[in-house]
Amino acid sequence: DAKTTQPPSMDCAEGRAANLPCNHSTISGNEYVYWYRQIHSQGPQYIIHGLKNNETNEMASLIITEDRKSSTLILPHATLRDTAVYYCIVRLGWGGSEKLVFGKGTKLTVNP
Amino acid sequence: DTGVSQDPRHKITKRGQNVTFRCDPISEHNRLYWYRQTLGQGPEFLTYFQNEAQLEKSRLLSDRFSAERPKGSFSTLEIQRTEQGDSAMYLCASSLAAGAGLGRSANFGPGTRLTVT
After folding, report:
1. Cβ of B98 under 8 Å from any chain A Cβ?
2. pLDDT for A1-58, tens place per residue?
3. Which of A83, B56, B75, B81 could form an SS bridge with B69, CB 3.0 to 4.6 Å?
């Protein structure tokens, strides 16, 4: 699985958009980008995933660059409850290992 | 709540004792995963089941660790002769085999926090 690089921490004001970057320059053509988050003392929570097109769901939007070497998770209106560690993971959509390889993620702090 | 459940949520044990954790996945999910997370780190994969078959194991899963999923439903993770280095959060996740194009997303449980004294 390709490795990802994320900033260790970010701050965001409540009500503003939070834009979390992730670099995955060695991603292969059949690898998806997944985002999970982990609120303190809870298990990770799936947010969104995508292959090459931008994706949006009720939680967030995922913007993947045309060359697929980086992506951005957007929380459009961050709330205090969005304070968590956000993990960007790259893995095959099918076939290959079943494991998710978590890095250290980005600690997002939403400030009032 | 129909999510993944884990029991117990917290366990304190003395070094050398055996411990067993249980995970109940989402009922229709045929895939079940165990992860371990130490303080300040992301979760690390331990092992994976598809139905009752254990298909993948990490090198982190030493001989003291054993996982089972006897009927393809709930799973247990046992640690024998616990060591202080085993202190961690043990996370279980489940997912449904996805068809082409859907990708895979795992639903995680709340975890069992193990403290070995």
Report:
1. yes
2. 668 999 999 999 999 999 999 999 999 888 889 999 999 889 999 899 999 989 999 9
3. B75
